[in-house]
């Protein structure tokens, strides 16, 4: 290995340490056209192997990196790769570091999450069960009714309150234990009044 490439060994090792086990980092000596360092070699290549692709006109290379690009490993793994050109003090290309990331574990996880989070395939959640608290849920439902009618709570007539109670019944609010007393305090009506209104829809 050229001495100018030796400082990059620690960099290769650190990248692999961070993204292990899904990354392979390979360093080539461009002059010798050989692989001089490899970490987490899932491509089965070894130090001393010849470069897979031969680069021509090395001095004509202007880019400092190539990629990211897709490739396939020798055992069929789908990889996302980037190649970095290492230059000496005179800007001459002397090495190339290839970072090969195995994307299959992420793709598998993504497909699982996409299926799990597919909202259109999910049944509507029972809002009473999933609300932070029954009181908060009840207040949100009352606010929903008031917003639809563009009216304030203080401006509700007796008929409006009756309509609101019927609306709350349709939203399942009265399935909550002890909610009747809370509704009475909010609307300033008696329990008897609430139950009489509920009889209208319950029969």
Describe it.
With 203 residues, the protein is α+β, with helices and mostly antiparallel strands. The chain has two domains: 3-108, Beta-Lactamase (2-Layer Sandwich), CATH 3.30.450; 122-200, no CATH class. It contains seven helices and five strands, in the order αβββββαααααα. It has helices spanning 7-19, 104-116, 127-130, 134-149, 158-170, 179-187, 191-202; strands at residues 23-29, 34-39, 65-72, 78-87, 93-102. Strand 4 (78-87) and strand 5 form a beta hairpin. Helix 5 (158-170) packs across helix 7 (191-202). The longest helix is centred in the last third of the chain and has 16 residues, at 134-149. It is rod-shaped and about 95 Å long. It starts with 6 loop residues before the first helix and ends with a helix. The mean pLDDT is 83.
